[in-house]
Amino acid sequence: MLYFFDNCVLDTERRELRRGADAISLQPQVFDLLEYLIRNRERVVSKDDLIAGIWRGRIVSESALMTRINAARAAIGDSGAEQRSIKTLPRKGVRFVANVREQQPLEGNATTVVQPGLPLPDMPSIAVLPFQDMSGDPGQDYFADGVVEEIITALSRFRQLFVIARNSSFTYKGRSVDVKQVGRELGVRYVLEGSVRKAASRVRITAQLIDAIRGTHLWADRIDGTFGDIFDLQDQVTENVVGSLAPKIEQAEIERTKHKPTDSLDAYDCYLRAMMYFHRWTGESINDALRLFYRAIELDSGCASAHGLAAWCYVRRKLSGWMENPTREMAELERLARRASELAGDDAIALFSAGWALVQTSSCAEAGAAMIDRALTLNPNIPAAWLVGGWTKIYLGEPETAIGFFARAIRLNPLDPLVARMRTGIAAAQFLAGHYKEAAFSAETALRQHPNDLPLLRVAAASHALAEQMPDAKRNIARICHLNPALRLSGVAELAPCRRPEDVSRYVDGIRRAGLPE
Questions:
Q1: pLDDT reported for residue 186
Q2: Do residues 130 and 170 touch, judged by C-beta distance below 8 A?
Q3: Per-residue confidence band for 283, with pLDDT thresholds at 50, 70 and 90
Q4: How would DSSP label each residue in 171-215?
Q5: Which string of b and e fits 267-278 if b means at least 16 CB within 10 Å?
Q6: Which of 121-125, 134-138, 447-451, 502-506 has the lowest average pLDDT?
Q7: Which of 85, 175, 182 is nearest to 125 (CA)?
Q8: Residue 493 has what DSSP assignment?
Q9: CA 255 to chain CA centroid, nearest Å
Q10: Reduced to 3 states, what is the DSSP secondary structure of residue 473?
């Protein structure tokens, strides 16, 4: 096996270490130690593990062991002070923490030296390759190239992504490529490739996301359209691909982080683990997410997104009735949101999450709405930003506009786990627009996916009640009372997703008619 890391390659078959173009001489035990650490890089290796794996249980002194570790560090250009690749965890052991890429040696050419690729950035990284034209008409290349350029531009708006520029990606045009090789040569973890097929006036575009390290497929999609509206189709492809791609990359990164020892997490790893809990949408998971966001902030005080999403955690606690000390928690919500807005710059995720939190404080609603609008201007490809933007329009008394926001969010990523929340927003907007039966239907559709969601249950109960569908209204109220026995009608106004007095009155009236106790 060949192991690539930083500017080094370790060849286990030839028992050779190369750093750049130089062959590095290693004592046999130092080579064995380095190989053992790399093979077991997903965990912390204890002193006993090393003795059992390398010295076969023979007695080894602490100083002899540290001498071998320091020799391994020196061989790969690391040191005990820096610990960029081999990290010591006091009283626990050591762990190989550099990014590693694996490759089988080339068959039939034992003398070939495979040069190490570029190191992976400290964030998700992607290259979008030129799409293959399957129509056989070279004159249509411009359309496929335009699609790829638009996707690269749209992905570049995500500050959490490292995106290879168009000029580098297009060096692979017309070539049959191995995505693992592309990943090594460009220093990226993910590769997006696709094809365009034109028949008469119809166009079919396919795209697939590949983990370039493992060579596994993570996601694929197909978009059909007419060539007559070529630029509209190009926009549609970009929206669909980017809207689906960003969550898939985040999900893949979360899965990768799960395999890291929790005591070696850095700020970004904590952020990813927090997102895993954040998406589960339960009281316990929000508490876990909040704890990890705070840890990320502790490790990186300038992490704007962690501040914004921590504030969003408090929003969920507020809207779901989970706050234990509302006064203190609302103050912390506002502090986190304001700090996120100070740090955000052009970070769309930090802006819209912080803006959504500020909308919850009546004195800052307009400022929060402006931050969400700015986030959508900076990056219109984030479904969650359209989601909170829609709820903000509801809060400000613009239900018809809100429906358009939620529809845009669904169009961007129809398979997103947040789709049920988007349908909840549509139900709330329909309710405020006076379309009670439609609102009840939308709410019940979303409840199939989230049967215990309290804000959704309240919208469903109020909609059924004002639509004169009392058995369904009472069924939803019974569920609300089971999940939150302390909720009374007197506290419902504070939970209303709207600011206009007439909207709040209508919402409270619907809940009252449905039968919530005074």
A1: 83
A2: yes
A3: confident
A4: GGTT----HHHHHHHHT-SEEEEEEEEEETTEEEEEEEEEETTTT
A5: bbbbbbbbbbbb
A6: 134-138
A7: 182
A8: G
A9: 11
A10: helix
Q: How many residues does the chain have?
A: 518
Residue 207 β-bridge partners: 194, 221
Q: Which two tokens stand for residue 17?
A: 């270490």
**For residue 201, how many other CB atoms are within 10 A of its CB?**
9
Q: Please write the tens of the pLDDT for every residue from 77-120.
A: 888 888 888 988 888 889 998 888 777 654 444 434 444 556 77
Q: How far is it, in rounded angstroms, from Cα 222 to Cα 204?
A: 7
Work out the percent of the chain whose per-residue pLDDT is above 90: 31
Instruction: Please give the full DSSP string across 28-55, using - where no structure is assigned.
Output: HHHHHHHHHHHHTTTSPBPHHHHHHHHS
Residue 125 to residue 513: CA distance in whole angstroms: 53
Coil vs helix vs strand at 469: coil
Q: Specify whether the CB–CB gap between 206 and 129 falls below 8 A.
A: no
The pTM (predicted TM-score) of the whole model is: 0.62
Contacts of 14 (CB under 8 A, 6+ apart): 110
- pLDDT for 444 beyond 90: yes
Cβ contacts of 144 within 8 Å, gap of 6 or more: 130, 131, 132, 133, 196
Question: What gap in Å lies between CA 89 and CA 509, rounded to an integer?
Answer: 59
Q: How many other CB atoms are found less than 10 A from the CB of residue 281?
A: 18
Residue 185, token pair as written in the block:
């040569």
Q: Identify the helix (H) or strand (E) that includes residue 326.
A: helix 326-344
Residue in 392, 515, 385 with CA at minimum distance from that of residue 457? 515
Burial of 19 (0-12, 13-18, 19+ CB in 10 A): middle
Whether residue 221 contacts residue 131, with contact meaning beta carbons closer than 8 Å, is answered with no
Are 156 and 126 in contact by the 8 Å Cβ rule? The answer is: no
Residue indicated by tokens 């009546």:
362
Instruction: Assess whether pLDDT exceeds 90 at residue 330.
Output: yes
Here the tokens at position 194 are 């696709």
Between these two residues, 476 and 261, which has the higher pLDDT value? 476
Distance CA 153, CA 147 (A): 10
Tell me the two tokens of residue 387: 């989601």
Contact call for residues 378 and 387 (beta carbons, < 8 A): no
Which tokens in the block code for residue 212?
A: 């370039």
Which residues lie closer than 8 Å to 267 by C-beta, 6 or more apart? 296, 297, 299, 300, 303, 306
User: Is the separation of the CB atoms in 195 and 133 below 8 Å?
Assistant: yes
Which residues neighbour 140 within 8 Å (Cβ) at sequence distance 6 or greater?
A: 133, 196, 198
> Which helix or strand (DSSP H or E) is residue 10 part of?
strand 8-11
User: By C-alpha distance, which of 123, 240, 251, 255 is closest to 187?
Assistant: 123
